[in-house]
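Researcher: Good morning. I'm working through a list of sequences from a screen, and I'd like to move beyond sequence-only analysis. For each chain I'm collecting a predicted structure so we can compare shapes side by side. This is the next one on the list. No need for commentary yet; just the structure.
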Amino acid sequence: MTLRSFAHTDIGRVRPENEDSFLCDDAWHFYAVADGIGGLPGGAQASQMAIHTLEEWLARQAKGGPLDYTTGLVEINERVFQLGRRLSPRYGIGTTLTAAHFHSGKLTVIHVGDSSLYRLRGGELDVLTVEHNLENEMRERLARGESALLLTENRAALTRCVGQPPPLVGDIHTHAVEPGDRYLLCSDGVSRFILPREIAQVLGEAKATPETIVRTLIERANERGGLDNSTAVVIFS
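Model: Good morning. Structure tokens for this chain:
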């Protein structure tokens, strides 16, 4: 499988520290975004540890062999959790983690939190991840016929993150990859400030490269106030 990719992260115009981290590994065809959780201490350390542990886990795997993504996610969560016990014994630390592994004509998605993975195919934009927040959890409960009460001010609060006390259950699912697909991994510093139709337009620009798309999206997020760190990874299949 031949892929082209580019990744970049930006502190934005308001935050004193960049709490986002990313992985862009063309040798492994493995890509990821981690966004340290605001409101908790050690957000940058949490996201950096998640990506660092992911890199270490990948380095121990056999090229071309099957990967046990669940075991990898357990290891990443444990490392971030233990770091949190040292840095912030009272509150812990946490990060999102959204990863994409391209292999054997397929894409495996590993996802925890509210970072996003988009796919543009034939001009149609699909979101391949679901945000793990209170609003979506309440919707799932209602769909199962269970009672649920959603307070508007808490609807975006995360219900899952890397670094939480184990066990952690992440979303892991596989999709077919087609030639011409374009993918965007991004933190919510991009997805909260750029509408899906705009993302589709930027991703679908005929003469665009992964680099020009990444830089356009981050620049646009900053033009709209740069209220958060923004990170984007773009992959062309």
